Each structure stands twice: as C-alpha cells, then as structure tokens.
C-alpha cells in the first residue's frame, strides 16, 4: 500500500493540484485506488495536513505501508517537513523520495500504465477524478490535469512498487469508507 504524493503549490485556476493518491497492489499485480485527494493550496502546511490525514487512514492496516513523495525543488523541503511531522505525530512510516526527468519522464511513466489500464488491471473508485484523467490522457496535451495519474504512475517504478516477498496484498473492491459516500 502506497500513498503517492505529487505536491504543487499554487492557487491559480490553471495551476496543477497537489495529488495525494493512495493505491494498493494485489497478488495479480492489479492496482486498486483506495483514496484520491486533489488539493489546491499555496500553503505547504495545508498540504501536509492532508497527507497526514491520509496516512492515519491507512498506515495501521498494512505492514508495508509507505508514503512516496516527489522531491524536486520546493518538494524536497516538503518531503523533509513530512518526515518531521510524522516523527512529531509518532508515526513510524517509511517515506520514499522520487525524482522524475521533467515532463518527458512524467509522460513516459503515465504511458507505462497504459497496458494495465487497457487490460482493466487498474481499479478506480466510483466518481474518482482519475477516471477522467485516464480516459482523456494524451501525451503533451497542454492544460490537461494529470496530477492524480501522475502520482499513481509511480507505482510502475520498482523503487516504489510493493515487493512480493514482504508485501501484504490488498483485497480488491470498494473500501467501506467509499460505499457510504
């Protein structure tokens, strides 16, 4: 189980959102969306608060739980602050910092998810913002919101994806929290 974070700080209408996306992986290598939050804020504390709330929802259920956070430029400071907040809250959670190779690397990761999407090995929650992002994704499409699938695409990275030897596979399906919403 991973909470994947793609932080962005801006409140402009056309700016990216911070994506806080939680995905589990089962023994058949299927991905299951457990939670997605798209946060528009220029306040790093607000983004950290959303991450901590998400962590508290999932970390006790999965022994291999980790937070994956992009760490470029300001994001590096946010990753440091996240580690500090986790310590302050007495949460023993592994934080995996990842770096991408610009827009090209992002699009390569997202395109790498296409076979899973086409074989229906990516399972999304009803009403998820990821549905539209996957459905209408085109490489190099300007102005398109890709924040959620950009975050989830890190599950294709071997540093991030759950190793089978120590993994606690998830049971697929709609989580209880989503059924009553």
Structural description of this entry:
The protein is an alpha/beta fold and 181 residues long. Helix content is 35%, strand content 19%. The protein contains seven helices and six strands. The protein has helices spanning 44-58, 74-88, 102-112, 114-118, 129-135, 147-152, 176-179; strands at residues 2-6, 18-25, 31-39, 66-70, 94-98, 122-123. The protein has a six-stranded mixed sheet. Strand 2 (18-25) and strand 3 (31-39) form a beta hairpin. The protein starts with a strand and ends with a helix. The model has no long low-confidence stretch (mean pLDDT 84).
Give me a quick take on this structure.
The chain is an alpha/beta fold and 181 residues long. It contains seven helices and six strands; from the N terminus they run βββαβαβααβααα.
Q: Which SSEs are present, and which pair or pack?
A:
Layout: E1 2-6, E2 18-25, E3 31-39, H1 44-58, E4 66-70, H2 74-88, E5 94-98, H3 102-112, H4 114-118, E6 122-123, H5 129-135, H6 147-152, H7 176-179
Parallel strand pairs: 1-4, 3-6, 4-5
Antiparallel strand pairs: 1-2, 2-3
How would you classify the helix and strand content by structural class?
alpha/beta
Low-confidence stretches: none
Number of helices: 7
The string of secondary-structure elements, in order, is EEEHEHEHHEHHH
Helix content: 25-40%
Assembly state here?
A: single chain
CA(first)-CA(last) distance: 22 Å
Return the average pLDDT rounded to an integer: 84
Overall morphology: globular
Note the beta-strand portion. 15-25%
Q: Strand sequence of the main sheet, in spatial order?
A: 5-4-1-2-3-6
Give the tally of β-strands.
6
């Amino acid at each position: 189980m991973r909470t994947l974070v793609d932080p962005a700080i801006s409140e402009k209408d056309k700016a990216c959102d911070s994506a806080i996306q939680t995905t589990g992986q089962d023994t058949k290598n299927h991905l299951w969306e457990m939670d997605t939050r798209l946060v528009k804020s220029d306040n790093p504390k607000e983004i950290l608060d959303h991450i901590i709330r998400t962590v508290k929802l999932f970390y006790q259920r999965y022994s291999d739980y980790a937070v994956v956070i992009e760490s470029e430029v300001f994001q590096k400071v946010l990753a440091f602050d996240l580690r500090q907040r986790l310590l302050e809250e007495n949460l023993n959670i592994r934080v995996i910092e990842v770096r991408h190779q610009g827009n090209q690397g992002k699009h390569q990761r997202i395109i790498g998810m296409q076979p899973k999407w086409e074989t229906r090995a990516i399972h999304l929650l009803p009403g998820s913002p990821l549905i539209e992002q996957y459905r209408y994704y085109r490489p190099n499409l300007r102005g398109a919101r890709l924040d959620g699938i950009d975050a989830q695409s890190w599950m294709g990275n071997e540093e991030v994806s759950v190793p089978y030897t120590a993994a606690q596979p998830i049971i697929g399906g709609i989580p209880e929290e989503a059924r009553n919403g």
